[in-house]
Amino acid sequence: MASRLGIILAATVLFGGVIGGTVAPAFALDPTAGDPAAGEKVFRKCQACHAVGADAKSKTGPALTGVIGRPAGNVEGFSYSPALTKEAEAGLVWTPDKIGEFLTNPKGFLPGTKMSFAGLRKDQERADLIAYLATFP
User: Fold this and answer.
1) Rounded Cα–Cα distance for residues 100 and 28 (Å)
2) Distance between CA atoms of 124 and 55, rounded to whole angstroms?
3) Could you give the CA distance from residue 52 to residue 65 in angstroms, rounded to a whole number?
4) What separation, in Å, do the N-terminal and C-terminal C-alpha atoms of the chain show?
5) Over the stretch 21-68, which tens digit does the pLDDT of each residue have?
6) Model pTM?
7) Which long-range contacts (CB under 8 A, 24 or more apart) does 63-66 make?
C-alpha cells in the first residue's frame, strides 16, 4: 500500500496534479525548449476560444497576444472569473512557468476558472505552445 501511495504522489508531482486540495507544481518549463511551429499546431486546440496576433479580439476567452509576462486578468473589456480576478489582485503574472502550470490542469491550478479546457498533459506540447505565444509580444 505504501509503495502504491508513493507512486501516486510521485506521478502527481511529476504531472502537476492536485494533492490535498493544493496543486502540485509541474516541472518548470524552459521557454527556449519549445518549437513555435509545433506550438502553432497545438494552438489549434485553443483557437475556438482564444485569438492571438496583432488584430486579435477576445472570444469566449481573452486574446492571448502579449500574454507572456503579462499580469493576469488585464485584457480590457474581458469579463474574468472571480477566481482569476482574485489571483490577479494577488499579483499573478503569466510567466512561462505559470502558464505551463495552468495549461497542465486549468481547474486544478485555478479552481473556479471559466476555462473549460481539460489541459495539455504533455510537457513538450506546453513548451511548444508557450514558444508560439512568445512570438506575439
Assistant:
1) 8
2) 28
3) 5
4) 49
5) 444 444 456 657 899 999 999 999 999 999 999 999 999 999 999 999
6) 0.78
7) 64/133, 64/136, 65/136, 65/137, 66/136, 66/137
